[in-house]
Write a structure and sequence with these properties.
mainly alpha; Arc Repressor Mutant, subunit A; three-stranded antiparallel beta sheet; 6 helices; 62% helix; 8% strand; globular
């Protein structure tokens, strides 16, 4: 089990880096230089929503990077619009600008192209569904490890 678990972790890391490189390559191909791949994926995940930076963080759209920095850069480059909440002046709400919506549509088109190409290959819909279910189970397992009340073995010990 340990070897399979470590292999899964390595594959997840490698796939994530490779996917970010695919997004970067697409941005480069389209001559888009004022946003990076992580920021482009944040835009895609925001889509038509309007939310706070805290909500963005809670949804996990930051992909392991600094949310405030990325939001600031996307506002500076015209991809996001921000305004103070009418109900809580401390809270800033963000949404995609027309430029951000345009990029979001381009990324969606890229995903559509990828899905079409995958469906023509040897990878089948059911295989992707099975992989996604496995990822969700790993996510639940790791979330359980973060639950400080959970009974999990400490580092250097074995389960009883």
């Amino acid at each position: 089990m340990r070897a399979a678990y470590l292999e899964a972790i390595r594959l997840i890391e490698r796939l994530h880096r490779q996917f970010l490189e695919v997004v970067k390559t697409e941005l480069d191909r389209q001559g888009i230089e004022d946003i990076n791949n992580v920021q482009a994926l944040i835009l895609f995940n925001i889509s038509e929503d309007e939310l706070t930076v805290g909500e963005l963080t809670n949804r996990g759209y930051y992909l392991g990077s600094n949310v405030s920095y990325n939001v600031r850069k996307m506002v500076e480059n015209g991809y996001l619009a921000q305004e103070r909440s009418a109900h809580d002046r401390r809270s800033i709400r963000i949404r995609l600008s027309p430029k951000g919506l345009d990029l979001c549509k381009r990324i969606a088109a890229m995903f559509d192209t990828h899905a079409g190409a995958i469906s023509q290959g040897t990878l089948k819909d059911e295989q992707l569904k099975t992989a996604s279910q496995t990822y969700r189970e790993l996510e639940r397992f790791w979330a359980g490890l973060l639950d400080y009340g959970a009974r999990v073995p400490r580092l250097g010990t074995t389960a009883a």
